[in-house]
Structures are given as C-alpha cells and as structure tokens.
Amino acid sequence: MIKIKNKEEVEIMQKSGHILAETLFEVLKHIRPGISEKEIDKLANDLIVKQGGEPGFKKVPGYHNATCISTNEVVVHGIPSDYKLKEGDVIGIDCGVFYKGFHSDMSETIRVRGENSKLKRDEVDKFLETGKMALGEGIKMAKYGNHVGDISKTIQDIVEKQGGYSVVRSLVGHGVGRNLHEEPEIPGYLEGKIENTPLLKEGMVIAIEVIYNMGASDVVYANNDGWTIKTEDGSISGVFERTVAITKDGPLVLTK
Asked: Is 243 in a helix, a strand, or coil?
C-alpha cells in the first residue's frame, strides 16, 4: 500500500532531509586519501546527532552503522571497514536520517582526490557524471500525474545509451516515510509499459536511486557479511539518491 503524506508530515520529512543533506555534503568535504571508511561513518553519525536527528540506518534490524560505504566494485550496503581510501578510488556514501518519526535517504558517489591530485578526467569521471545527470533528469520526471515508469525510463535511457554502462536490475529506489523502505518500488529501468507502473500522486514521497555499473548489471553478495553487494564482473559501481516529495507544483527535493 502506498502511503500518502500530509503537508505537516512532508514538512517534517523536509527537516529530516535537510539534516541529511547537510551531513552528507559535509562528509564529502573530508574524503581524501588516507581516511578510513570507519572514520567517515563516525563523522556522519556525529553530524546527524549534533543536528538533532538519529542515524536512520541504525534502525534497520541487524545493521549498526550510520552509513553504507561502497568503494570501487561494491554496489550497495557496504559495511564501513578499516580500509583507508586511496587516490582514484570511487566511493559511494549512502546515509539516512530519522527525525520526529520519519526517515530520509540519500547517497552520493565521488572519486577520491588528494589536495594536489594529478588525476586527469577519464572514463571513471564520465561514468560518475552520467549517474549524476541521470538522477537529475529522473527527479524532473517525478511530477504529479506522471508514472513511476517515466522516472525509470529516463534513468535507464541516460545510463545505458552511453554504451557499456548498465542499471542494476535487482536493486531499486523506493517509497520512504515512517519506514525507511515503503511502496512503491522505483526501478532505474523500465519493464513493460509506463502506464502500467504506479501513478505519482500528491503526497507521495520517494527515494529515487540511480544504481549502476561501468560493466554488466549482475551483482553478487560479498564478504560473507550478509550485506555487502558488489559487481559480479569486478567493474566500478555508483549510486546517486535523493528523497523527493510529489507536489502539484512539481518535484520537491527534501534532501537539499
């Protein structure tokens, strides 16, 4: 069942999203060679608490961190480790905030560069730019009266028309609210007809995610931890995500 939020609930979620966005963008400023995944996680946790929120991911049964950190071939749900980032690594940080009974969800992927980095723009940077563009254009389609499939098709077209990149089929965006994961699913690819996918109605709040690989779309569990998912072919992966409310005036990005 798709849960519709009223104006007051959307406003609470907007505050939750603001805490999350402030946290994640501050964390990204600290990404540099030599910092460990665990240090990144602690920084995110402390920033969320300082702003009056709770780390939303810690409310997921069996998960004990404020973030999921996905480095290089890890796609999603990577548990922060002692691994220290290296120049050129690709790191995706997925984070959530719980505030006054409501969740928000957001992720961003960047390339690790030192202060005097000599890394030149290459295929990896193009890959990340493509994902960010797909997210932005997907959000534009999150309009009252459109369907979920309008978002899905837009993301898939941008990612897969690049040639060689692929949207992961087994991992999708989702509704968000009192629960971190709610209906409907928001795939980054289209199966069937757009009109057969859920209609976007005022008061729906969704987490739009671009989860994609530089290689094939197949993924596998890794590290025997029950969480970490990586690309089957070892290719680089990326994830970009925002929490968005559907309004009659257009999409409202809450993680902003």
From this structure: strand
